[in-house]
Amino acid sequence: MSDDAPMHDWHAHRTPELFLAQVEATLEHAFQPIVDIQSGAVYGFEALLRGSESLGFHTPCAVFDFAAENGCLGPTEAVLQRKAIARFAKFADARKAKLFLNVDGRGLAPDAAPLAAMVEAMARNGLTPSNLCLEIPEIASRFDEGDLHRFVQAAREEGFSFAIDDFGQGHSQLRLLYQYEPGILKIDRFFITALQNDARKRLFVSSVVDLAHVLGIRVVAEGVETPSELRACRDVGCDLVQGFLVARPFADPSEAKSVYTEIGELNERKSARKSADLDVLDREMERLAPVCRTASVAEALEIFRANPTQTILPVVDERDEPKGIIRESDLKSFLYMSFGRDLLLNPTIDNHLGQFIRPCAIADVHAPLDRLVDVGGSEPSDGIVMTRAGRYVGCLLPNALLKLSNEARLRIAQEQNPLTKLPGNSAISDHVVRTCANADIDRAFIYIDFDNFKPFNDTYGFRIGDRALILFSDLLKRQLDTPGAFVGHIGGDDYFVGLDEWPPERLAGLMRELRTDFAHQVESLYNAEHRGQGYIVANDRRGRAQTYPLLTCSIAVLHIPKGLSIENLDLLSNHIARLKLQAKSEAGGVAVSSFGEAEALDAPERTGESASVRPYLSIV
Predict the structure, then answer these.
(1) Taking Cα atoms as reference points, which of 91, 85, 78 lies closest to residue 125?
(2) What is the pTM of this model?
(3) Within 143-251, where are the H helices?
(4) pLDDT for 495-519, tens place per residue?
């Protein structure tokens, strides 16, 4: 058969019975881990179909298309689900993880047969429904909405969880997100690839993550292949990660790990600020005892009765994963109905908590405080359910969120320069350390300071001196309003700029324009006499009268080429110090240099120290 021959003609001789027998005998699964983005601890494994080529199909999707067209999609899925569950059960830590299985959708039956088969297969292999997550693919047109709705409701009652796969690829996924309340959302690889270099992608992904967290949904970044992509996914708030950076798919159960330590090691070292955040959360979090989703209404009522001030009750599944909350007010409103209490407490009636569980905002304890405030702001009456590695650990109630909001505002105020409102030393330090480690892109650090600012300040006073600083800050903001730009104010007349993906020659031109524009605009702060003569006379540090030119600035530009990761910030600091002196002596006031790879590699020998991250203040 040629590659262009119609696939269906080639398979036309196969009967459904023969096809199912071949599926049973030939097709297998490989498994790819899905891990916690902070620690690398395994959350689950996705089952990926393998062997379709040996049956003459170009892709796994073609297998299901053929089965659907020949009226045997349901039995085909049942065979493959049974095989995947049996293989997954051989993993050493299978009972502590989730198996992610794709549901085609066209094979959903209006009866309970598919679910019953999965429940039976899980039980036969020593697993429970809480170990299985069913992935709804992006192609909504495959589904009969009525069948899908009934299937999701029945599966949720059995204890299965749901994920929306390849989010961002389909045309109606926001509706799926709204209607079916999945526990997991998997962002399509298109949005993850080179996320660190694309401001529009970062905006999209961060917005999706924030929306998901408000709805109580955890987010998986699919197809992560580089450390920079991992850091970018973590920075925008993704909870879990899947891709070649973690591990390639494997078929041998012995290859499965419980922790992929490389992911934890790739995360930045814990800063003092992150430790402080965890201390704040630990202090403010309420350790409300959760109730299992299979509990009865009577159990929930007893908890509220024993804790009169408690207004919400966290609900978890058998693996301690949050499934939502019960509001005391909802139970009370039911109790006030005629015969409501009798109905709730009648043991002969199906009175488990499912009908009262509401979605709630959810966040990991490693989330930044400002993100927690944003997530909790949409449902201030409920607060946020907090997790660690996906497991419930406590709740941030409304009063705690108010304290965190004040803490976040205070921190922002402390970290900004009070005059220019630009990020200060702490934010600059974080940027330098993070950017030095990102070897996937070209980077530049730019240090700017005014020439002869003290005599100008002495002559015109602090109020006009502050106007010069604000003028320059506004100029920086206007000229560097571009993706990948970071502008900070070190203090006094010293500024910092970080730029990504700018070649050295363009950087030099941009900085010369900035210097020229500042020299021109700052003239407006001088009186007519000084502008006319082009200088001022003021005392130097020894009290002697000196002539000083009108204000300008010196600019040191350090380019760090792609492929180079810098850990020794002492070496970086020395290079920058030399470059700043060079800029002061240049006629044009701009000095540009590239950080050489050999210089970085020789760092430990030159400094006599092991390579380590040092505080940013040693640089400036």
Answers:
(1) 85
(2) 0.69
(3) 145-158, 173-180, 189-192, 199-214, 227-235
(4) 999 998 888 888 889 999 999 999 9
